[in-house]
Design goal:
Guanylate-bd/ATL_C, single chain, eight-stranded mixed β-sheet, P-loop_NTPase, 60% helix, alpha/beta, two-stranded antiparallel sheet, elongated, GTP-binding, hydrolase, GTP binding, 605 residues
Length: 605
């Protein structure tokens, strides 16, 4: 993407997606790292985003008091340090723009930035004082603007734990910082400066509550926090031409902080994930943006769980389509060779089926009841049945044409067999046709069956010639008739063996295929369980650190409440894991049913 494009348009207070930007995301198959910047208008957000894009210009930089960015603008660039990943930069409309006059609109922009990001950069000017914290008022409203689960009430979500598990990392960038980083004469880091600014005060009453609530929200919702303090980049007189200034003209200290900030974002910002720990591609991000914005436009509260389920449905259907396409493409080479024998066709089928299942598993997620895997199995089964029929038809056509060609001369000279001794001549020609037919390679799966039918069709003709041959005695005629009957029975047996071999190989294919499905499904379930647990462990570690910090600062009551909360979420997480494990085991047992009953009494696979 050469330059930024509008992703979410804000027109007269109404939010809507820009189709062109969504189309771009839909074509982006790489995993994405999403970094959003939010903050008050005219605080230099766009400069940071251009810096992250490693471009001098791109996002609009303004030198007036008017906000330049409206809605949410997107710039997709190759990730500087993660191969085959895309860095998606989202520059948001400045908060607190007096020209808008609607704080609700600001709250939705802020909420969207949180919902879409893996790292959220909050940009402000001056210092992190009480005024700066209070201007981050939208954090206080998050429980009203976002739901994690559709079935969970706000009181339960309000504890912040569920939000923290799915919210982005939080980076506070302070621009034009002029203070010394010291507390009581002791030099501190920017991170310590941020944590000190978010410390809670002891006491009760409205004034104390107003002071502590926004800080508690930031601490609860964003347990992973980082801070960078930027000195002024240049003199006040030069600020109006900041976008056109050479890097060398900017203050050295400013450039050092900017470089450190970029390195941190590039190295520490993780891939965008959703509930369950599933990483997103650009295409999946496009679905997510559309779902969230449409939900807001309808006047509803965005729900992470519902959005992920809607996206999973779309992605899983796409995974089915992709898996089927992989199978169909894999079978094209052998299809061009029809007719082929059952072993060659089966080996190609099993190889293509394996590739199709792997393609499906790689893309699918949250297929909790196996609905889409079953759909893929059914689609492949239908296509396989059609291919096997085509192969049979091709075999039958080739064998019939071969026998017709081999017997043409014999059919035309039927009168030469009506003489004494003609039956012996007929048998010689007949046996020669069968021998040439058997010598012909690559006849396919209907070779014996077509030959059986050919011999049956010739039976009346053969018997007529036998009975008309005056050279043979009655006893010889009886012997020849029995000999012919024995040959027909042997051929019938050969045809049955051919059909039996095909059936046995088909059943073997089903068994091997089902074993692979079960193995892939089990591995996929284990992978998703591990992703969910890793996601939970990260949140739990941060909450435990928060509890430890509260204890160290003397907030014993709050620390004890947090300890109880931690124990509660650990119990809840274990219950959810146990329930998920039971559901997954039940699904695997259900899928095994079809393996145990190949007679189709259980037809899941």
């Amino acid at each position: 993407m050469d330059s930024p494009m509008c992703l979410v348009k804000n027109a007269d207070g109404e939010l809507c997606v820009e189709p062109e930007a969504i189309d771009y995301l839909m074509g982006l198959k790489q995993k994405v790292v999403v970094v959003s910047v939010v903050g008050l208008y005219r605080t230099g957000k766009s400069y940071l985003m251009n810096k992250l894009a490693q471009k001098r210009s791109g996002f609009a930089l303004g030198a007036t008091i008017q906000s330049k960015t409206k809605g949410i603008w997107m710039w997709c660039v190759p990730h500087p340090e993660k191969t085959d990943h895309t860095l998606v930069l989202l520059d948001t409309e400045g908060l607190g723009d007096v020209e808008k006059g609607d704080s609700k609109n600001d709250a939705w922009i802020f909420s969207l930035a949180i919902l879409l990001s893996s790292t959220l950069v909050y940009n402000s000017r001056g210092t992190i004082d009480n005024d700066a914290v209070e201007k981050l008022q939208y954090v206080n409203e998050l429980t009203e603007m976002i739901k994690v689960k559709s079935s969970t009430d706000n009181e339960e979500e309000g504890e912040g734990t569920q939000f923290a598990q799915f919210f982005p990392n939080f980076v506070w960038t302070v621009r034009d910082f002029t203070l010394k980083l010291e507390i009581d004469g002791r030099v501190i880091t920017p991170d310590q400066y941020l944590e000190n600014s978010l410390q809670l005060k002891k006491g009760y009453g409205k004034k104390m509550n107003d002071y502590n609530v926004p800080r508690e929200c930031i601490r609860n919702f964003f347990p992973s926090r980082k801070c960078f303090v930027f000195p002024s980049p240049t003199t006040p007189d030069n600020m109006h031409r900041l976008d056109s200034m050479d890097e060398a003209e900017l203050s050295e200290r400013f450039r050092e902080v900017a470089d450190t900030f970029c390195r941190f974002i590039f190295q520490e910002s993780r891939m965008k994930t959703v509930i369950g720990g599933h990483t997103l591609t650009g295409e999946m991000l496009g679905h997510l943006v559309t779902t969230y914005v449409e939900t807001i436009a309808k006047g509803n509260v965005p729900c992470l769980e519902n959005a992920v389920l809607a996206m999973a449905k779309i992605e899983n259907q796409a995974a089915v389509d992709e898996g089927l396409a992989v199978y169909q493409n894999g079978m094209e080479d052998v299809k061009a060779l029809f007719p082929v024998d059952i072993n060659q066709l089966s080996e190609n089928h099993l190889r293509s089926e394996t590739q199709a299942t792997q393609a499906f598993m790689k893309r699918s997620f949250k297929d909790d009841n196996g609905e889409f895997l079953k759909a893929l199995v059914e689609a492949i089964s239908n296509h396989t049945a059609d291919l096997f029929k085509q192969n049979k038809d091709a075999s039958e056509k080739k064998c019939k044409a071969l026998l017709e060609n081999l017997s043409a001369q014999m059919d035309q000279g039927i009168k030469e067999y009506t003489i004494p001794g003609g039956y012996g001549l007929y048998c010689n020609h007949h046996d020669n046709i069968v021998a040439q037919y058997r010598a012909e390679p690559n006849k396919g799966v209907r070779a014996e069956e077509v030959l059986e039918q050919f011999l049956k069709d010739k039976s009346a003709e053969s018997n007529s010639i036998l009975q008309a041959d005056k050279q043979l005695t009655k006893k010889e005629k009886k012997f020849q008739a029995e000999k012919k009957k024995t040959a027909e029975l042997e051929q019938e047996k050969a045809a049955l063996n051919e059909q039996k071999a095909e059936m046995e190989r088909t059943i073997e294919n089903i068994g091997r295929g089902q074993e692979k499905y079960l193995k892939e499904m089990k591995e996929k379930m284990e992978e998703e369980r591990n992703q969910q647990q890793q996601e939970f462990n990260r949140t739990l570690d941060r909450r435990m650190q928060e509890q430890k910090d509260l204890l160290e600062k003397g907030h014993k009551e709050k620390a004890e409440l947090m300890r109880q909360e931690i124990e509660e979420i650990k119990k809840k997480n274990q219950l959810e894991r146990d329930a998920n494990t039971r559901n997954q085991e039940a699904l695997l047992d259900e899928l095994k049913c079809s393996k145990a009953k190949p007679d189709n009494s259980c037809t899941l696979l």
